[in-house]
Structure formats: structure tokens, C-alpha cells
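pls ignore typos typing on phone
iron/sulfur cluster + seq
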Amino acid sequence: MAEKSYLDLKSEVWDTKKCSGCGACVAVCPADALSFAEGELVVSPKSNGYCKQATDSVPCGACYDVCPRIGDQPKDTLGAHIELLSAKAAFEIPHRQSGGAVTAILSNALDEGLIDAVVTVTEDPWTLKPTSVVITKSDVLIHEAGSRYSWWVPLLAALKDAAITRKYTKVAIVGVPCAVQAAARIRASENDLLRPYAKAIRLVVGLFCTETFDYAALVYGKLEKHYKLAPHEIKKLDVKGKLDILKQDGTHLSVPLADLEETIRPGCRICTDFSSLCADLSAGAVGSPAGSTTLIIRNDTGKGFVESAIRNHRLVTEKSVDVSAIEKLANSKIRKNSR
Ligand SMILES: Cc1cc2nc3c(=O)[nH]c(=O)nc-3n(C[C@H](O)[C@H](O)[C@H](O)COP(=O)(O)OP(=O)(O)OC[C@H]3O[C@@H](n4cnc5c(N)ncnc54)[C@H](O)[C@@H]3O)c2cc1C
Ligand code: SF4
Ligand code: SF4
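k done
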């Protein structure tokens, strides 16, 4: 695919509003020519007009090769796996989203030297603005646990920082399914320009995902304007059939998802991957009791990281997962977004 350029990506993905906002193309452009603008509902990246391939006829195609929106969307629910578990961190993680299993596995991996960096998303506690980051210390990772639902930051832009700028060689990525699909394309690609990224990726942890909300559209356009709720008044967001907002004063506000339709990123509307089918290890809330994380262990890499955390008494697991609950949500996403 080396003859493709950002112009093909633009016509096939950006202009058709299929872009998920994963940021992979921005990260791997060797000319740093792609970027996201700031503002409400930014649908796709933009180019500064220079392109190795299109301007200078130098073989590249990196942005096109990594894009998860090229080709058909998957139609599977659970995907390939070797084990399903309900899991909990065996230590206190104050901001964990479900059972804290993702943080327990990754912090153990950092402490054991199995990985040297984690590419993930954090948020500013005052504004809730999400940022993609590289975390290298387990205490920082534990502090940053929890899910960022108003996400559109180019998560994988931080992969360039981790693998190329800071030269970490054992990187874990935590991402929603579109970012996980992009990471899988990087790993499988024969494009020489992507090889340094592929070599650096040691583990991909995928989160379950029905959709994400645009940060500015949700936090300012909706919550502040219509619900008179400033970002600093919000302690935690959770999506369980509705948006549940835990406020700093301990009270809850419940917002129907139908009221948030216009804040959902347009690219999410064609996405049919719920369970992060291309990850080494997937994690979500559904399928396990409240306070636990469902883990779908997909291959030996994922299994090795989970077993290490169990061995070191960082993670406790049970085999009781409600598979039908996961399949129900995954099928409903496929039906809704295949129309
Ligand atoms: C946008 C979004 C939608 C989700 N939708 C569902 C759903 O519909 N059903 C369901 O069962 N589960 C869903 N999840 C997953 C769920 O919220 C938890 O992330 C999962 O259960 C793991 O919980 P945990 O306590 O083990 O994770 P924690 O230990 O709290 O760790 C979470 C890790 O994920 C990272 N992270 C948070 N947000 C993002 C993000 N946007 N991109 C990349 N990394 C991130 C954090 O930095 C942290 O490292 C969603 C998550 C996200 C981010
Ligand atoms: S889906 Fe990701 S890789 Fe594709 S155009 Fe959008 S940001 Fe770039
Ligand atoms: S629904 Fe989730 S995985 Fe799909 S494009 Fe949106 S953010 Fe990405």
C-alpha cells in the first residue's frame, strides 16, 4: 500500500466522516504534517499540505496503512479468546472505573520490568480535558485510573513520544477498540516506516466501548450549558444505559443517552467493534458484578501479563463471567452501526 497518501485517507475516511479520531495517522506521519484542531466536534485530522508521497513522490503511505477505517468493519462479538475472567485489583485504587484490573495488571508489569511505558489517556481534574500521555511509574498509573468517556484525543500520538522520541522498547497501549485496531495494523504492517513502532509494542489492552463523546461538545456544549454543571463539579462519569454523573458533593445526575446524541463523535456511528477484538487482553464492566472488571484474555501475551499480576498478589480473579451480557451489548452495537 506504499503508493497511498494522505489524499486517499482524506477522500476515503476524513471526507466521509468515518474517522474515529484514534490519532494513529497523526502519530506515524514522518513529516509531522497531520494534526487535530481544537474545538467542538472536530471530525478528523487536517494536513499542512506537505506529504512525502504526494508532494515529493517518496514512498510512504504510513497514515493510510494504520487507519482502522480502511476496509470493512468487524462483525464479531467476543472474538478470539483463551479465557474469560472476572477480576479485581488486590489493593486500593481510589479512582478505578470497574475492578481496577487494568491498573493492577499494568502497574505490576511496570514494577516487574515487563514493560517500560504505558500509552494511555489522562484528564485534567478541573476541566476534565483528556490528554494522551506516556506513563512510566506505577504510582502515577494508579493515580490516573478510571475511564475517560469524553475522549477524542489522538491517543496514539503518544506512541510516537514513547517509541521514537523517548525510545522506550517495551510499551503497553491502553485504548478503545478503534485505537486497538490501529495498533494491530501497525504490528501487522510490512511498511518499513512502521517497524520501529511495531517493535516497541509489547502489550495492547483494549477497553470495551459503545461510543465516545466529544470533549467540548459534552462538557461545555451539553453539561455546562444545559445542565448547569461545571467540569470541576464532576467527580466521575459512567455509562450504564445512561450517563451517570457522580458530583463532587456526592449526589448523582442521570442524563439519558438520547439527550447526548449530538455529542457522540460522528466516526463512532459506523463502528461495530465493542470488545476490542484485536487486543491481547480486553477489559470492560459488563459481564461482571459491580466493582469487578471482565477480562477477555485473547492470546498468550495477554495471559502472561495476567498471570504475573496474580502471582504477585496484585490481582484476584474468578471464572464467573456473564458472556450473554457482553454478546448482547456487542450485537446491539453491530446492529445499530451497520444500518
Ligand atoms: C470511552 C469508553 C467507553 C467504554 N464503554 C464501556 C461499555 O459500554 N461497557 C463496558 O462494559 N465497559 C466500557 N468501558 C470500559 C470500562 O469503563 C473500564 O475502562 C473497564 O471496565 C476497565 O476497568 P478497570 O477498573 O479495570 O480500569 P482502571 O483500572 O480504572 O484503568 C483504566 C485505564 O484505562 C485508561 N483509559 C481511560 N480512558 C481511556 C480512553 N478513553 N482511552 C484509552 N485509555 C483510557 C486509564 O488511563 C487507565 O489506565 C469504556 C471505557 C471507555 C474509556
Ligand atoms: S481513524 Fe485514526 S488513523 Fe484513520 S483518519 Fe481518523 S485519526 Fe487517522
Ligand atoms: S465507538 Fe469506541 S471504538 Fe468505536 S470509533 Fe467510537 S471510540 Fe472508537
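The two ends are 29 Å apart (CA to CA). The pocket of iron/sulfur cluster (ligand 3) is lined by residues 20, 176-178, 209, 211-212, 265, 267-268, 271, 273 (CB under 6 Å). more later
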